[in-house]
Amino acid sequence: MGSSILFEGTTSKRNRTDHVSPRLLALIPLAIGINLALGQFAAATALPLFLDTVGTVLVAVLAGLAPALLTGLISQVVFTLVTGNVTWLAFLPVQLFIAAYAALAADRAGFASVRRAVVGGLGLGALAATIAAPIAYFAFGGVTSGGVTVVTAALTGLGVPLHWAVFASSLSNDLLDKTITFLLVRTILVTLPRRVASRFPGVSRALGLHR
Amino acid sequence: MTVGYLPGAGFLHRAHPFTAMAIGGGVAVLAFLLAPPAGPLAVLALGVALAMAAGVWRVLIPAAVISGPFWVFLFAIHGLFREAPLTALGLSARMTASIVAFLLVIAVVHPGRLVEALLARGVPFAAAYLLAAAIQIVPRFQNRARAILDAQRCRGLRLRGSPLRRVRAVVALAIPLVLSALAEVDEHALALETRGVGTGKRRTILHPPVDTPLDRAIRWAVLGVLAVAVLVTYP
Fold first, then answer.
1. What is the dihedral of CA B58, B59, B61, B63, to 10 degrees?
2. B23: exposed, middle or buried (Cβ count in 10 Å: 0-12, 13-18, 19+)
């Protein structure tokens, strides 16, 4: 899925570094930085958004499935380490699913138009919430990050059973968050300077410019 | 809020990185293994004691800031609405203990030393580099995000107000942040190439951390404690 430009080198078993190109080694930490910076900003705005997967979705588009999975995995491990917040690690399956979904969406020109990006984002939001809600409920008693927990607390206060409150808050947040994430990534793709875009064949495929 | 490496000479700073990680990871896992609320509370006390003994008590401040919202929401949902304050206490203590444990690890393990330890164990350079680079890039991106927001505010961006206004602020941050990151990819790739990444040569480790018999014994002891905890909690 577009990762051939990033994976290169010999097949020497002596040094497995050769299987990963310097460009990919440069891209993944930057994407992780984007995930964390946007995630923390979204939390600070008290909006019901996470925005902690923008970098992962971007890598899925630019470099394909395997680099996106790697970005998702390292993102969650590093976020857990630098913030101490173990909820990041618990939601690793969600990040990995998002990476796989975004790679598939990019391969099917899922960012070709605003409409396609919205539909793709809504689909991802519904699926991500279905995976995230049981993790939030069973591992953390429904309390995870700021925005989503406010909604859970409000629904619980209104008498909604906790498991439904957790699912409803996850669903509402994820639908909005993933739609905005997909729209953001589409905006980034269309505003990429041609010089940068030409280095990543995944861009034209995701935008449906050639299939 | 995030915490980075805190220079020091405490026993966890001197220990092999894997030993410090085993102790921190053991504390975090133990908090989830032992029955609440007494188990997680005891593990939390252990984590605090370790942070003090290791000379990185400063991690307790961000730990309190990060775990504060969990205490508030858990007591609101479980203590107030579901009348189960002990559940809230157990879950809150569990979260706080794991937060202290992870912040402790990041405070005592220098990323460069971790890379050398991983390479010495035969971990591919790419994997070791990605982990260390990601840890080090986080504060840089937080600073860059702040700089972009300051610049956008100078141009009239308002971060507070209606949800729509705040969404606009997110876009005003996201686009320059991502574009500037992508513009850096080539520069970083070139820097890696000049350091011999991708040449197919085995890399030399200049200062591999010393893994003493005591380090190994401590790691086995942590594993033993976790095994006992499993047997006690799930007989």
1. -170
2. buried
Is B233 in contact with B34 (CB distance < 8 Å)?
yes
Residue with structure tokens 């005891």?
Answer: B42
Q: Compare CB distances from B181 to A30, A77, A80 and report the shortest one's residue.
A: A30
Task: Using alpha carbons, select from A188, A76, A205, A90 the residue that is nearest to residue A140.
Answer: A90
User: Which 8-state DSSP code applies to residue B204?
Assistant: P
| Nearest one of B144, B99, B157, B164 to A38, comparing CA atoms | B144
- Would you put residue B204 in left (φ > 0), alpha (ψ -120 to 50) or beta? beta
Looking at CA atoms only, how far is residue A191 from chain B in angstroms?
9
Minimal Cβ distance to A54: which of B100, B174, B183: B174
Chain B closest-CA separation from residue A178 CA (Å): 13
Largest interatomic CA distance in chain A: 62
Compare all CA atoms of chain B with the CA of A155 and give the residue at the minimum distance: B77
Find where tokens 């942040």 sit.
Answer: B177
Interface touch B77/A142, C-beta < 8 Å: yes
Count of helix runs (H) and strand runs (E) in chain B: 9, 0
Quickly count helices (H) and strands (E) in chain A. Answer: 10, 0
Q: A134, A41, A91: which is closest to B172 by C-alpha?
A: A41
Chain B residue nearest residue A36, CA to CA: B138
Q: Which residues contact B213 (CB under 8 A, 6 or more apart)?
A: none
Q: Which ipTM was obtained for this model?
A: 0.80
At residue A128, what is the residue type? A
Model-level pTM?
0.82
Q: Is the dihedral of CA B110, B116, B118, B121 positive or negative?
A: negative
Tens-binned pLDDT, residue by residue, of chain B (235 aa): 667 788 989 999 999 999 999 999 999 999 999 988 999 999 999 999 999 999 999 999 999 998 888 888 888 888 877 778 888 899 899 999 999 999 999 899 998 898 889 988 888 888 888 888 888 888 888 889 889 988 988 888 877 778 888 888 888 888 999 999 988 888 888 888 888 877 767 777 888 899 999 999 999 999 999 999 999 888 7
Instruction: Compute the distance between CA of residue B108 and CA of residue A22 in angstroms, rounded to an integer.
Output: 29
**A residues 78..137 contacting B (CB < 8 A):** 78, 80-87
How many whole angstroms separate alpha carbon A20 and alpha carbon A31? Answer: 16
- When CB atoms are compared, the residue of A9, A22, A46 closest to B192 is A22
